[in-house]
Amino acid sequence: MMNVIQRHILTCLCCLLPVVAQGAAIQYVQLAAPAPLQAVDWYTGFMECEPVAGREEAVNCQGLELEFIARPILGGSQGTGIDHLAFSYPDVAAKMAELERVGVGGLGVRLQRYEDGAAWRDVDGFFRVGYIFDPWGTRIELLQDAARTGFHHVHLSAADPAGTLAWYEEAFGGDPGNVTGDLGGLRYDNGWLLVSVHDSAMPAATAGRAIDHLAFSSPALDAELQAMAARDITIVQSPAVPANANSDSRRAFVAGPDGVRIALVEPGWAGVALMQDTGDELSAVNDTFRAPQTPWGEPDLQGVWSGDAAHGIPLERPDDVDASTALSQAEAAARRERGTLQSIWGYEREWRDTTLGYAKNAPLTQVAMIIDPPDGRLPPLTAAAEAARNARGGAPAAPAGPEDLNSWVRCITQGLPNHMLPTVYNNGLQIVQGPGTVAITKEMIHETRVIAIDAAPVDDGIRQWLGNSRGWWEDDALVIETRGFNGRAPFQGSSEDMVLTERFTRISPNLLEYRFTVDDPAVWTQPWTAMFPFVLDNAQYELVEYACHEGNYAMSNILSSARDSERGED
Amino acid sequence: MKRKRFLAAAMTTMALLLGSAVAGAAEDDFARSWDGHPDFNGIWQAIGTAHWDLEPHGPAAGPPAFGAIGAVPPGQGVVVGGRIPYQDWALDKRAENFANRYTRDPEIKCFLPGVPRFAYLPHPFQVIQGDSKIMLVSGFAAASRTIHMDKDEPEPAPIDSWMGRSHGRWDGDTLVVEAAGFNGESWFDRAGNFASWNLKVTERFTPLGANALMYEATMEDDTVFTRPWIIRMPLYRRLEEDLRILEFKCVEFSEEILYGHLRRDAGEE
């Protein structure tokens, strides 16, 4: 990984830019936060920003306006085209010490420490610098620039920093200059735009991430867009007054370099009032989306996807929730807090402290994973399955040997479809494709399914833990049908005759909808279908090796304690 | 600036190499992928006795209960130069490993096989050759490798692991994979040959016609060896129609060795 010094040196490739108009300003930066009011509190409490009179969704940070939008977050800002925001303090060491004392609990502050554990560092030719994250994944740099306090700069990440700065200068003006020494950037009325070279390949797109976009004011919006279109700049959204806008100013979106979403707003812009329920925001993203294609012409589902956002959604609808509604963001957050954070609080805190740049996805608001039957409940069992379930009852006996423990405890497999469902951790799902083949790897206990497209079925005499799969494409969706289970890793009582049909559909650049239908007539009186999404997280998630069996001390402990207790009874 | 010019020159050379390879495609006796590189998609397997012992070895008895099935077939070895250049202490360690092979070999315990052992296990593996990653998937212990083809240069492994972290690049028609970040627990074979966490493996996969490739791996580990050393063997494409990688979830086959003494009826016959 490139260190800060190298990054800043590379940034200097852009020092020789022509001087053009001054007087431009960064209008606002939009951050996503499932609960914007909490974000306003956080930024006023910790970053010395001020509330904006008459607006509940924005703060003013010494000249820069931050606007918050209520919606789930598809990952943090680091690794995207807008890597972080920077604020200047007279004494960074004291400020970092203050923030460290706040701690990471609840809506706290996460420090991004340097490799040696230090919270801040004096960077040669730059300033004293430290990094933190807000609770929603926006990376924030704190630096000690005596020349100014408060908002300091927006820091972009670009494949070609010089080209990117030139692009912004041509589009939005700004005054090329040096922040310090020979570190160049664009100076706007309210702060700097700096650009570092991206570590590897391309930065991730900002749309949907913690820092969604930045905005510039555009007095002659239509003419300006026309000029941009003539320069082959993609107009993502035509000018319109957004629903719930606080003013009559129109806003348009263009695609900036490096996957950065940029808004142009007419003078008088005053933000968008908070909407109460944005539970279906995720599905709203995708009306016109078509999955990209692999170079050899199949739908491209490749990447590292995370099931984290879906963790906490129960398979079945709880009795006290109506199937027709979605949870509010606050209810969804509380549900995950109950399900995840309390049960494994130690893990969570450790991760938040140590996993740099990792921002939990906002929880999803789905009431239940089961969408068919529409009441969100498993269909009735067959009489035979009901009888078998009743016969099983009673407390499990102490295990006589390994075979008496389930296949997940034994590190053999979670079975299907359980293998796909999110749990408290290790929800990464890596998809790699070759022509006619899809490899789907789940991080949890490391299992890779290799799906052959349009292939002949495997002989039914071969029974496998994860069954025999074959796949095909339906439009842009990958459909996998699996039979031939060995029946030893049942899901909710499923039998070896279960037919599992899974459907993976890329419904937006960052979302993979996953549906599965269980057809098992020996157990359930009708087939049932469940659904939840995976969120693309290429920038921050790399599967680690979950070597489960190799360190499975639980097996020895469970079996030896069973033997000990039997000896005690003798 | 110097470095840039060098890079540019190197890229031109690569482009020329690639260009000439593509231009000569009609004469190739192996398939090429959409991007002009050799197409390794498919199922591959080593034939031979490297999984028993990388070094030259005669036949040897196995556990008496398994008769001829459990015995070690002879082989001429795959180590270039014949012998692994161990440091003195490491020869003793290998002897200890060998003496305890029926309980300590990671393979017998169904542990992840490590690198390069993955390539010549007596199990097939499938290559899924994508545009940014290449995956190698075995049925054995559900082991897989992700080869990152989309990084400018090898990145450090986030954490030591059995399979390490693999970075690939093309050198003409050869896929070169650098793997490091190992946990030092893997063996190379059933004879107790081993390395430490310090191991770095550089593998080369070179087409040898349509249905074979030459597999070469260079081992560097100055904790265990006196110098780098190389193994070389062909891998063969499995040609059976509709062949799949089937599960060999061997955990349950290893449980008697690992936990048998903790059974309720342990010691009773």
Please describe what this structure looks like.
The complex is a heterodimer of chains A (570) and B (269). Chain A has helices at residues 4-11, 36-46, 92-102, 161-172, 221-230, 281-284, 329-341, 345-354, 383-392, 553-569; strands at 26-32, 50-52, 55-61, 64-69, 82-88, 110-112, 120-122, 128-133, 139-143, 150-158, 175-180, 183-188, 191-197, 211-217, 235-240, 251-255, 261-265, 303-306, 370-372, 428-434, 437-442, 447-452, 468-474, 477-483, 499-508, 511-519, 528-536. Chain A has 570 residues and is α+β, with helices and mostly antiparallel strands. Chain A folds into two domains: 4-276, 2,3-Dihydroxybiphenyl 1,2-Dioxygenase, domain 1 (Roll), CATH 3.10.180.10; 303-551, no CATH class. In chain A, strands 18, 19, 20, 21, 22, 23, 24, 25, 26 and 27 form a ten-stranded antiparallel sheet that branches. In chain A, strands 5, 6, 7, 8, 9, 10, 11, 12 and 13 form a nine-stranded mixed sheet that branches. The N and C termini of chain A lie far apart (60 Å). Chain B is α+β, with helices and mostly antiparallel strands and 269 residues long. Chain B has a single domain (2-21, 28-58, 73-260), classed as Lipocalin. Helices cover 17% and strands 23% of the residues of chain B. Chain B is built from four helices and nine strands, in the order αβααββββββββα. Chain B has a nine-stranded mixed beta barrel with strand order 1-2-3-4-5-6-7-8-9. The model of chain B is unreliable at 1-25 (pLDDT under 50).
